[in-house]
Structure formats: C-alpha cells, structure tokens
Specification:
With 191 residues, the protein is mainly α. The protein has one domain (3-186). Helix content is 71%, strand content 2%. The protein is built from nine helices and two strands; from the N terminus they run ααααααααββα. It has helices at 3-13, 16-22, 28-52, 57-62, 73-87, 90-110, 120-135, 141-156, 168-186; strands at 160-161, 164-165. The chain has a two-stranded antiparallel ribbon with strand order 1-2. Strand 1 (160-161) and strand 2 form a beta hairpin. Helix 8 (141-156) runs antiparallel to helix 9. It is globular. The mean pLDDT is 86.
C-alpha cells in the first residue's frame, strides 16, 4: 500500500479518540488524560528517534522526508489534539479535532501531499467537510464557518520557518478551536 494512503489511514484512526467521548465510553476528563498520555509517549519516542537513533520500519514508512530530522507529524498530531482538548470545552474541541482526523486526510488524498499551497478544489472540499463536521455540533453557523476557514487555511499552507515546517497536524485543531471559541464567545449568533 502506498505510503501516503497509509499515513491517511493512520490519520483517520485518530477519530476513534473523540468517538470514545461522543459514545459516552470516556468522560471528557478521561479523554483529555488519554490524549496527554499519547503526547507524552510521542515525546519519548521522538526523543529516542531523533537523539538515540530509533530505526523502526514504521518511522521510515510513515514519516515524510522533511520529518526525518525534525519532530514527526504523528507527534504534532498528538500535541495538536491534546492542546485543543485542554484549551477548549468539548463543543469546540471535538469538532476541531475531527477537522484534523477527518478533513485533513481527505484533503491529503485529494491534494498532492507536497509542501506549498494546495489546489483550489482541494481547499473547497476541505472547507465543506470542516463546515459539515462543525455543523454536527451545537455551534452557531458563524463559528462553524470561521473554524472551517481557519482549518482550511492551516491545511492549505504549510509555512517553513528557519527550515522547520509548521505542520498542519498542529495548526488545524488549535487554529480551528481558537476561531470557533472566539466566534462563540464574541460574535452574534447567526442561523
């Protein structure tokens, strides 16, 4: 199976974490602790991989070239979900996390997977999926649209700062969460 498809399947599998909360199998606090455990585990694995030289085949298979000497996407994925879960209430955090676990892999399959700006049709699909996800929750439409807009922007452009790629695994959930939280708190409710 092509490495890009494998990466996307791993991405989608993360949907199971907020699903545990949505299905009332975990409390919000339990989910947050589970995400924190995942982030701590990622830090340990990344420290070993980057500084000791952990050469597991899965790292070779699922990391991109630009991740070889930097934090891998899976660690930023764990950090992005964890920060989002601890920073926002569930009605904002869960859709923001799902934008990462559902919309980003769809975008990745449609897009090139390369760094840079994605094609317009890919961004439109990403935006539509994100709005759809946020609309499933008790968010006002303006919050859903703003969260989707920020998630789409984060997905569409991966800036490189001092040689380090600012990965959308980190920016999608946090950015969408911030936008939706601020919209819920400060903007009038639009149908």
């Amino acid at each position: 199976m092509h490495s890009e498809i494998k990466r996307r399947l791993v991405h989608v599998s993360g949907t199971g974490l907020p699903a545990l909360y949505l299905l009332n199998l975990l409390t919000w606090q339990q989910l947050r602790w589970l995400l924190l455990l995942g982030s701590v585990s990622a830090v340990v694995l990344e420290a070993i991989r980057l500084f000791v030289g952990l050469d597991w085949r899965i790292f070779e298979e699922l990391t991109r070239e630009y991740e070889q000497e930097n934090l891998a996407g899976y660690a930023l994925y764990a950090f992005g979900m964890t920060v989002t879960a601890f920073a926002f209430p569930p009605d904002v955090a869960v859709p923001a996390i799902l934008m990462l676990t559902v919309a980003d892999p769809i975008s990745g399959v449609l897009g090139s997977g390369e760094l840079g700006v994605k094609a317009g049709h890919t961004l439109l699909v990403t935006f539509a999926v994100c709005v759809g996800i946020a609309s499933l929750f008790t968010l006002p439409l303006v919050a859903a649209v703003l969260g989707a807009l920020v998630a789409t922007l984060a997905d569409g452009v991966k800036p490189v700062i001092a040689g380090y790629v600012i990965d959308d695994n980190l920016t999608i959930p946090i950015g969408a969460g911030v936008a939706m939280f601020l919209a819920v708190r400060y903007l009038p409710t639009l149908v």
